[in-house]
């Protein structure tokens, strides 16, 4: 018989030294965030995400505001069919998988949403994760090997940056390069980074190029056809995180690749005529139902390797069936109702016009992200507070989310908005 040691009692007295260090440094960081006006206050919503939300104000009471800061681009987060699909999955498949995918965590809801996503993206296969962050974190550390080269746009989302950091730590000898945002030729360009990286004596494997499809802070669009041509010249694979592009870009909302004509028609023959994106990552937490979840979509062999070797899927639970079912229904609605995308496009054009007419400079693009550059972080935050007093919910972003001096209000338009909602935004902006 073995005996376990007697439980130790915690000695009363002063905090241990390491706690004093942590407490002091954390208090200093939080104080500096408050002092510089950078402290984020979590705002509580009561009720569903929609064109308008019920927001708790400083007095503790809830009031209505038109929401221009969610990623609910198609207005599907509160769609009755999307809700019903989640409820049905809860009844049919329970609250959770209680397992990772490869043990006993793969359910019919996963199969369904993954085949819907592959159909939407026009790829052979797709595989889900609990978030797009996790999907990106799985991609490079799993698919890349020492001697490979990853070249990344400087404005790529934080999860791509962290995925590359992780990959280069796990796979020693993996090379990386960064190019200036959307700059494909000339100094600091993608072409230069590819030429330099592939000429390195340590480069012995596969080159990879990764970009956001839609840059979330700029609302600008990656030039995928030109990137494809460069990738072909250097034998590189092209990876696109289109988290802000699905449901938004292209005639049928299939994404930035559709916007550029880099996809065959849905259900049409796989002609492989269009220049291709090799791999996509994306989120189910924005246009596609807005709950949570992410995916990798691409060739079957890449997905197979992710299933076999991707640490975030081998060692972390599957996407809940409720969320998988809601997202699957959202994709189905998107494929069935392209008029939602058209409505979003009309709203975006109307909103850009009204913002400009209110006297503000808005960066132009076909995306649903309309940044109004105000430069100063404190000004962006103050403007956001004044808009909210007028019943319009828009977030101000400053350093470190965007570079110093580039603070902005980020207006995000939805198909759920009416003309009246957009007019309310313009009126509130004009009154500032
Ligand atoms: C380009 C991009 N990738 C990934 C993510 C992360 O998405 P998720 O919330 O599914 O982790 C975001 C979210 O803001 C994003 O904009």
Give a structural overview:
This protein is of the alpha/beta class. It has 2 domains: 123 residues, Aspartate Aminotransferase, domain 1 (Alpha-Beta Complex); 257 residues, Type I PLP-dependent aspartate aminotransferase-like (Major domain) (Aspartate Aminotransferase, domain 2, 3-Layer(aba) Sandwich), CATH 3.40.640. It is built from 15 helices and 14 strands. The strands form 3 sheets. A 7-stranded mixed beta sheet has the order 4-10-9-8-7-5-6, with helices on both faces. Helix 2 packs antiparallel against helix 12. The chain is globular and about 60 Å long. The mean pLDDT is 93. The structure holds pyridoxal-5'-phosphate (PLP). The site of pyridoxal-5'-phosphate has 13 residues, from helix 5.
Feature tags:
432 residues; Aspartate Aminotransferase, domain 2; 2 domains; seven-stranded mixed β-sheet; 41% helix; binds pyridoxal-5'-phosphate
Short description:
This protein is of the alpha/beta class. Helix content is 41%, strand content 16%. The model has no long low-confidence stretch (mean pLDDT 93).
């Amino acid at each position: 018989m073995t005996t376990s040691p007697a439980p130790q009692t915690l000695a009363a007295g002063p905090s241990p030294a390491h706690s004093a260090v942590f407490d002091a440094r954390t208090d200093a960081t939080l104080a500096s965030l408050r002092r510089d006006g950078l402290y984020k206050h979590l705002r509580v919503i009561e009720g569903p995400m929609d064109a308008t939300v019920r927001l708790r104000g400083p007095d503790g009471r809830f009031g209505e505001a038109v929401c221009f800061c969610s990623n609910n681009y198609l207005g599907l987060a509160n769609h009755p069919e999307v809700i019903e699909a989640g409820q049905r999955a809860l009844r049919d498949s329970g609250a959770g998988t209680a397992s990772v995918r490869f043990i006993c965590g793969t359910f019919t809801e996963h199969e369904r949403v993954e085949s819907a996503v592959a159909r939407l993206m026009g790829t052979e296969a797709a595989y889900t994760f609990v978030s797009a962050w996790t999907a990106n974190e799985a991609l490079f550390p799993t698919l890349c090997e020492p001697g490979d080269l990853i070249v990344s746009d400087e404005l790529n989302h934080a999860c791509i940056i962290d995925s590359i950091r992780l990959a280069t730590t796990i796979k020693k000898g993996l090379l990386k390069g960064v190019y200036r945002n959307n700059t494909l030729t000339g100094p600091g360009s993608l072409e230069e980074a590819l030429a330099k990286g592939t000429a390195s004596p340590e480069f012995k494997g596969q080159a990879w190029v990764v970009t956001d499809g839609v840059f979330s802070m700029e609302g600008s669009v990656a030039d995928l056809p030109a990137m494809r041509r460069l990738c072909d010249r250097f034998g590189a694979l092209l990876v696109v995180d289109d988290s802000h592009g699905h449901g938004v870009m292209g005639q049928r909302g299939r994404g930035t690749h559709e916007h550029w004509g880099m996809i065959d028609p849905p259900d049409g023959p796989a002609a492989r005529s269009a220049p291709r994106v090799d791999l996509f990552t994306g989120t189910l937490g924005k246009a596609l139902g807005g709950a949570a979840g992410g995916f990798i979509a691409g060739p079957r062999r890449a997905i197979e390797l992710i299933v076999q070797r991707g640490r975030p899927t081998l060692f972390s639970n599957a996407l809940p069936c409720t969320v998988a079912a809601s997202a699957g229904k959202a994709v189905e609605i998107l494929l069935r109702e392209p008029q939602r995308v058209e409505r979003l496009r009309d709203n975006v054009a109307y909103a850009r016009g009204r913002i400009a007419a209110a006297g503000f400079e808005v960066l132009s693009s076909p995306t649903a992200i309309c940044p109004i550059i105000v430069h100063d972080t404190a000004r962006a935050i103050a403007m956001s507070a004044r808009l909210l007093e007028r019943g319009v919910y828009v977030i101000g972003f400053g350093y470190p989310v965007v570079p110093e001096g580039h603070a902005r209000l980020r207006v995000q338009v939805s198909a759920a908005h009416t003309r009246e909602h957009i007019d309310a935004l313009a009126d509130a902006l004009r009154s500032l």
